[in-house]
């Protein structure tokens, strides 16, 4: 890992925050010299405070860090109100529907819509600190809903619309939501799809959800229960002024559930001030957002990328953000490029999976469109292979745009490691360097920096403002998940779960998760969750799942299954279909098994722990370097290898 070097086309950038690597280094040094002071300066410069904070960082109860202690603000004031004086008629959101229809919402309109929605929530009894689950398609009302919660201090928890009723139910229960906001459904690839029936199912055994607010989007028939209220009706009479709730810097802003290596998904809790500061700053630093820019992030709002880079970051920065209901491959492989041409998009942000797919189905497609408005192409969610990077750079970016390969996580709130578009020399496949203020380091568990080309743990060794504050309702799990793997100078540091390598020039190359998390098309899935679902099949005795490299998805799910009665399984494919139906019901279609092997047993240590590392190596077709002689059942490894090889 050293790679070719590409240099930014500086002429594309008029007044970037970082013009060159010297400026980057100066800022890094400023943080090294005066960590808290530099953060405090940025927070005072960027955030409109109702009341200034008294203390920048409170480490007294580490790792439960507090930032900008005593400060008062409202995130929606930062994202909307403060822009009204200079940009009330500027497009805040440009929305495009699946069928190509579009809508522009100005900052003034956004102000009104959010206030009306906030008043609607209040009229239903939602108060500061209440949890509101949002299960919505990609329509402007989803953004209004998030902001309306923030306006009144309710804590939103957006659940990706692709999750099943079971998964939704778990999240509603864990968050103990008072209200759920959903839609009848929406449109995808020219056809309606439904969300409301999934909510009904999720709520079957739940009695504490008081109301379900239903946005009517696709106007298909749905059942209306006693709990349901129509957004379209109720919103009509709401006043369009709602005084923003005065929030403390550390009050929770939202929860977002994500998979860990064990157990159920965890509710990652983010705060107000630190989160919004970093969402805005990274828009300025990494995306070089300027007043006349149109920014498009293709994520779904159900993921952290959608939170930070469709809603909060662009709006805090006073930018125009594009929100898209459909998929970039419908009606054809040119859809995304056509949208870039139409809206004259300046920054386009997507995942390597989408890049690989668009490359595969239409390598020359971008050339048919005028993509000259583009300045920055972003990627996120998984390592990008140099081949995909180069196509993105050469064909989509026409050999001139900066590619920002941004490494970060649900827990980090915003970008942590990324090139700066006008400054950093790029290496395809490397996320390059930590952003100023972010002490991301590749270390061993004792905090020693790894030498070049040796894999280590990707850790963040100082707290940062937009970091996860805790796991909702489970502070012990928070400490265990993130602060119990590595130490530096004797102090526990944040461990990301990823491995990484420095090259000789100090560039960071992310090698992927070292824990039991799989990254399918940039979606994070816990092996334990998938295994728990598969075990519902009555014929499954034991199962272990691992990630297998996949040309398009990055990783796909590989299941090693031990059957109770192998003779009962006549049709293997039928059986896997059944298994996938269960997964769809328990989690969602994204977690489905793509490859499987029926095996006589799983390799286990003498204490009964499944040795996944061995199973991962077999799925990847790698050599087993680990000593297997200490296993309880070493012979099974050879048997599994033979079975997997015979399956091809
Ligand atoms: O493994 C890393 C991978 O995605 C994980 C975080 O997933 P999630 O919390 O769902 O957030 C995804 C969007 C921020 C990380 O632990 N990942 C994310 N970005 C990159 C990446 N791997 C390599 N390169 C990236 N740029």
UniProtKB/TrEMBL annotation:
It comes from the Bacteria. GO terms for cellular component: cytosol. InterPro entries: Ac_CoA_lig, ACAS_N, AMP-bd_C, AMP-bd_C_sf, AMP-binding_CS, AMP-dep_synth/lig_dom, ANL_N_sf. Its EC number is 6.2.1.1. CoA binds at residues 188-191, 305, 521. Its cofactor is Mg(2+). It holds the Pfam family ACAS_N. CDD domains: ACS (cd05966). Residues 529-609 form the AMP-binding enzyme C-terminal domain. Acetylated. Deacetylation by the SIR2-homolog deacetylase activates the enzyme. It catalyses: acetate + ATP + CoA = acetyl-CoA + AMP + diphosphate. ATP binds at residues 381-383, 405-410, 498, 513, 524. Residues 24-79 form the Acetyl-coenzyme A synthetase N-terminal domain. The modification N6-acetyllysine is found at residue 609. PROSITE patterns: AMP_BINDING. GO terms for molecular function: acetate-CoA ligase activity; AMP binding; ATP binding; metal ion binding. Coiled coil: none annotated. PANTHER family: ACETYL-COENZYME A SYNTHETASE, ACETYL-COENZYME A SYNTHETASE 1. This is Acetyl-coenzyme A synthetase. The gene is acsA.
């Amino acid at each position: 890992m050293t790679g070719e070097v590409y240099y930014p086309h500086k002429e594309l950038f008029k007044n970037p925050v970082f013009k060159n690597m010297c400026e980057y280094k100066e800022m890094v040094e400023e943080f090294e010299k005066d960590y808290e002071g530099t953060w405090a300066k940025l927070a005072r410069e960027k955030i409109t405070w109702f009341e200034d904070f008294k203390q920048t960082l409170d480490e007294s109860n580490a790792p439960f860090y507090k930032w900008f202690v005593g400060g008062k603000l409202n995130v929606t004031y930062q994202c909307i109100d403060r822009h009204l004086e200079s940009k009330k008629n500027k497009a805040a959101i440009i929305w495009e529907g699946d069928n190509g229809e579009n809508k522009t919402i100005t900052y003034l309109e956004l102000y009104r819509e959010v206030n009306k929605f906030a008043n609607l929530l209040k009229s239903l009894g939602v108060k500061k600190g209440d949890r509101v689950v949002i299960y919505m398609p990609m329509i402007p009302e989803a953004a209004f809903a998030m902001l309306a919660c923030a306006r009144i201090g309710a804590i939103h928890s957006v659940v990706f619309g692709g999750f099943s009723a079971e998964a939704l139910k778990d999240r509603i229960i864990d968050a103990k939501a008072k209200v759920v906001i959903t839609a009848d459904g929406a449109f995808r690839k020219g056809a309606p799809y439904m969300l409301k029936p999934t909510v009904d199912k999720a709520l079957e055994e739940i009695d504490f959800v008081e109301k379900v607010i239903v946005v009517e989007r696709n106007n298909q028939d749905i059942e209306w229960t006693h709990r349901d209220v129509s957004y379209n009706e109720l919103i009509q009479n709401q006043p369009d002024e709602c005084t923003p709730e005065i929030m403390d810097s550390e009050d929770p802003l939202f929860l977002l559930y994500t998979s860990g290596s064990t157990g159920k998904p965890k509710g990652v809790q983010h705060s107000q001030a630190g989160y919004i500061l970093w969402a805005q700053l990274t828009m300025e630093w990494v995306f070089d957002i300027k007043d006349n820019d149109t920014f498009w992030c293709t994520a779904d709002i159900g993921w952290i990328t959608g939170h930070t880079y469709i809603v909060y970051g662009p709006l805090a920065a006073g930018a125009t953000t594009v929100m898209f209901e459909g998929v970039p491959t419908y009606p054809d492989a040119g859809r995304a490029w056509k949208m870039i041409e139409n809206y004259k998009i300046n920054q386009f942000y997507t995942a390597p999976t989408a890049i690989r797919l668009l490359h595969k189905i239409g390598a020359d497609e971008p050339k048919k469109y005028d993509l000259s408005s583009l300045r920055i192409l972003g990627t996120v969610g998984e390592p990008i292979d140099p081949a995909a990077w180069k196509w993105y750079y050469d064909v989509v970016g026409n050999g001139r745009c900066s590619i920002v390969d941004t490494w970060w996580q649900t827990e980090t709130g915003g970008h942590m490691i990324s090139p700066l578009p006008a400054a950093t020399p790029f290496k395809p496949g490397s996320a390059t360097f930590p952003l100023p203020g972010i002490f991301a380091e590749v270390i061993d568990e004792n905090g020693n920096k790894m030498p070049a080309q040796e894999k280590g743990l990707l850790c963040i060794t100082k707290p940062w403002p937009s970091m996860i504050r805790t796991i909702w309702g489970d502070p012990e799990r928070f400490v265990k998940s993130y602060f119990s793997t590595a130490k530096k100078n004797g102090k526990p540091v944040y461990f990301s779960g990823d491995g990484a390598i420095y090259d000789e020039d100090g560039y960071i190359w992310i090698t992927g998760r070292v824990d039991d998390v799989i990254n399918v098309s940039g979606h994070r899935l816990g092996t334990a969750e998938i295994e728990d679902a598969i075990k519902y099949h009555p014929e499954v005795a034991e199962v272990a799942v691992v990630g297998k490299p996949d040309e398009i998805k990055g990783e796909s799910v590989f299941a090693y299954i031990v059957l109770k009665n192998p003779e009962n399984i006549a049709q293997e494919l039928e059986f896997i279909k059944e298994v996938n139906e269960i997964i769809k019901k328990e989690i969602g279609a994204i977690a489905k098994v793509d490859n499987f092997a029926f095996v006589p047993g799983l390799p286990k240590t003498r204490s009964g722990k499944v040795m996944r590392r061995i199973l991962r190596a077999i799925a990847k077709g790698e050599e087993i370097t680990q000593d297997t002689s200490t296993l309880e059942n070493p012979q099974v490894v050879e048997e599994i290898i033979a079975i997997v090889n015979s399956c091809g």
